[in-house]
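DM from R.C. (forwarded with permission)

"hey, sorry to bug you on a friday — could you get me a structure for this? deadline for the figure draft is monday and I only need the backbone to look sensible"
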Amino acid sequence: MGFLKFLKREKKDTLDELDLPPAPPPLEGFEENMPELPDFPDFGDEKGSGMEMPNLDFPEEEKNIQDFSKEETMPEFPSFPEMDENPTPIQPVSSNLQIPEPLSTPQPEFEPEQEEISEEQPMPSDTYPKTAGRLFSQEKRILRERPSAKTIYVSVDNFKATLGSINMVRSDLRKSEEALMKLESIKNAKDKSFDKMKSSLDDLQRKLIFVDKTLFKGE
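My reply, with the result:
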């Protein structure tokens, strides 16, 4: 705290060393222009004033306002009976409830399965004509021929024989195609010769008609 006092002393010394400012010049003519203040009225002594305070009488609401200063008597609570130290044990209630037995639901009676009608049953001949019966018989035969699920094994000899027969059929087909081509060419040649013969016959007929006209013209 010593250094704070030292600071305060230095501040006072600096204030004394400062030069005071010059006094302000007097205001000339300011007092002449100021208006005179009015005189205040004399109110007299406050105690000696004859004014009386009006008597404010408030109605007393004693009925509505309760006096809480008086102590109200608390009602007495009823006395509880004293509990025994060794209470009597509560006997378990015997449950005589009988659980109802589950109702036996009657099992549904299944009708015996009807035997499937075999497809081979012969159709009556009176209801369908013979043509319709043939058509239906072919369809039934196709339906009955189901492919077997088992794998079929073929021997090597049979496989070679089938391949040889297939090759023979192919060669026969080629030969038949060649024969058909030859027959078609022969037919075309005959058609051409027939056309030539027809044209020559037509020419001969025209010539005969001309000769006939010339011979029998003079008669």
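R.C.: lifesaver. The first helix runs from residue 2 to 17.
me: no worries. The CA atoms of residues 22 and 77 lie 93 Å apart.
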